[in-house]
């Protein structure tokens, strides 16, 4: 199947140092893939690292997060004519939420 890695493995974990606080991280290694719909374009293996620190109150939460912290370069889709769609680079962010 196009887009399916030949191998894929990873680790993730979550830690609650005190009530209301969560620290989480994941590391995933994706193996060699071909890109849908063109099987002629290929991704080399790559590693993705994501992490987050979150604080929760009764209805509120805030978080600092990072996605693709290793800034891995890979493609998400192959298009006709040899064009590709690149994945997002490293992202760092701050999120505020409310539950009601």
Automatic annotation (TrEMBL):
Superkingdom assignment: Bacteria
SUPFAM superfamilies according to UniProt: Porins
InterPro entries: Beta-barrel_TonB_sf
Keywords from the named record: Cell outer membrane, Membrane
Protein's UniProt name: Uncharacterized protein
Organism: Acetobacter ascendens
GO cellular component entries: cell outer membrane
Primary location group: membrane
Gene3D superfamilies: TonB-dependent receptor, beta-barrel domain (2.40.170.20)
Subcellular location(s) per record: Cell outer membrane
């Amino acid at each position: 199947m196009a887009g399916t890695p030949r191998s894929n493995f990873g680790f993730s974990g979550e830690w609650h140092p005190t009530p209301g606080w969560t620290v989480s991280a994941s590391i995933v290694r994706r193996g060699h893939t071909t890109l849908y719909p063109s099987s002629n374009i290929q991704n080399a293996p790559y590693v993705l690292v994501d992490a987050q620190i979150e604080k929760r109150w009764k209805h509120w939460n805030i978080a600092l997060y990072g996605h693709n912290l290793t800034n891995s370069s890979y493609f998400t889709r192959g298009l006709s004519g040899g064009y590709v769609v690149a994945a997002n680079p490293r992202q760092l962010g701050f999120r505020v939420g409310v539950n009601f």
